[in-house]
Write a structure and sequence with these properties.
The chain is an alpha/beta fold. It is built from 19 helices and nine strands. Strands 5-4-3-7-8 form a five-stranded mixed beta sheet, with helices on both faces. This is Integrase core domain-containing protein.
């Protein structure tokens, strides 16, 4: 687009946030310019590719060719990254360098690094084989699939996630000292709805009382906004390992994210610094490690949501960047089934199902938390990083062990697991599986549509 004398440059304060958002999603310059046209009045303002390149350069955003990275220039950064992500492949490392180090590096450079410094790992990665699982979704916000992950319970850490399957977007990924309390898990879901301002048609999870909170609250919200749904539970219980998308996400996370962090956590356990049977050590471990690990998980979620999925000829769902597919499904020929949530309805279900003073929402018992914070300030408030986490933990433990207030501060420690009854007199949504093993578990037609029938009827519109 050439700017005429009567057309001004689009205001930077309007377009810069969108430039950063699209840059993070690894969009090309032409794609960014095209998308920016939606965010200013094109009758009064304009922005062409040439001018955009100058704006981008002024913002310090430089492509791989401009940064001129080589195997030598990425060597130091790669050394740090491989400690945390030892199993990441070339495609993932390019993403890590971009999101964590602000380095735009060509994939060929990373492959050359691997061939020089990690030839044995290259052979191992080439030997891997994938197992295919089939999943159908009608469009964005058809389903939210939730699941917990117990691999870190040996450290006293419980993981939980929520996935929007059509876009592949991670809606939340949380670490806490519990992943079984239904009030806690429900708070993740309601916090997400509070941020979005809308909800999906149905939620789904594995069977388990820890998911009763989400099942109850989502059903209440759906019936609040559509009284015709009275008497039906707007949540699906996935039997026989069919909660596919969270399982895929956990599998990818186990390969991409957890090995380096588990190595670090195991180091503290094997060194005798952390005993999961020692209450004081448990409390200090929670106070130091959970906030830091949550920041790392937030960064991982942000990377995944802004990274285009690997192209797969067997996949019908969009191959775009999850955040872009979720926020602009019309650009991918898809439908959006989001349901606007009234603030009053959210407040109602919070009051109905969540007790905000419940101890599960405390990182550590409040008296002990106050004491740990005081000791942390005495140490000079050192930052918690991969390199310093165990040092901060041990320093706090040394200071706390000589405090006379410790016995009374930890005396309020108690088990936080409890059950929440499922709504009564609610029928499960219908379920139907095709002869070829495919199935549709969304909310269209109260879930009556089969996967095959739905795709044959609507596939040209939303599944291309």
């Amino acid at each position: 687009m050439l700017l005429t004398p009567n057309i001004k440059l689009a205001p930077l304060d309007i377009i810069q946030p969108h430039i950063l958002r699209l840059w993070k999603a690894r969009q090309t310059d032409k794609q960014i310019v095209a998308e920016l046209q939606k965010h200013f009045d094109t009758q009064c303002y304009g922005l062409g590719l040439t001018k955009f390149l100058k704006v981008r350069e002024g913002m310090g955003l430089r492509r791989a060719r401009q940064q001129h990275h080589t195997v030598e220039t990425i060597h130091e950064a790669m050394g740090d990254l491989r400690l945390t992500y030892p199993n990441a492949g070339a495609r993932e490392v390019v993403s890590f360098l971009f999101h964590e180090r602000n380095m735009s590096v060509a994939r060929s450079v990373v492959i050359s690094y691997f061939n020089i410094y990690e030839p044995e790992l290259v052979l191992q990665r080439k030997a891997n084989r994938l197992r295919r699982r089939r999943f159908w979704a009608a469009g964005v916000n058809d389903i939210f699939a939730v699941d917990q992950h117990d691999k870190w319970l040996r450290y006293g850490l419980g993981l939980h996630t929520g996935i929007e399957p059509f876009s592949g977007r991670i809606m939340w990924m949380r670490v806490w000292h519990s992943n079984r309390n239904p009030q806690l898990i429900l708070s993740y879901y309601l916090d997400t709805l509070d941020t979005l301002g809308h909800m999906p048609m149905v939620t789904q999870s594995d069977p388990g009382s820890e998911n009763f909170g989400i099942a109850n609250a989502h059903t209440t919200l759906r019936q609040w906004h559509n009284p015709a749904l009275q008497g039906t539970l707007q949540h699906r219980w996935m039997q026989n390992k069919k909660n596919v998308m969270p399982e895929i996400m956990w599998s990818q996370m186990r390969r991409r994210f957890t090995p380096g962090f588990e190595s670090l956590l195991d180091h503290g356990v094997m060194s005798g610094w952390y005993d999961s049977n020692n209450i004081l050590q448990i409390m200090v471990f929670r106070w130091v490690f959970i906030p830091w690990l949550q920041r790392e998980l937030d960064a991982y979620q942000d990377r995944v949501n802004n990274t285009r999925k690997r192209r797969d000829c067997n996949k019908i769902l969009p191959h775009g960047v999850p955040n872009l597919v979720y926020n602009s499904p019309e650009d991918f020929g898809a439908l959006n089934f989001k349901i606007t949530v009234e603030r009053e309805a959210l407040d109602h279900v919070r009051d109905l199902y969540i007790n905000p003073s419940h101890v599960v929402f405390d990182l550590v018992p409040q008296p002990l938390g106050t004491l740990i914070q005081h000791c942390y300030e005495e140490l000079g408030c050192p930052s918690v990083t991969r390199q310093s986490a165990w040092d901060v933990y041990r320093g706090l433990l040394d200071v706390l062990q000589v405090h006379e207030e410790i016995p009374s501060a930890i005396s309020v420690f108690e088990d936080v697991e409890e059950d929440l009854p499922l709504l009564e007199n609610q029928q499960d949504l219908p379920y139907r599986e095709e002869n070829n093993g495919t199935y549709y578990m969304g909310g269209l037609g109260l879930g009556m549509s089969s996967a095959r029938g739905y795709v044959e009827h609507k596939g040209a519109d939303i599944c291309r």
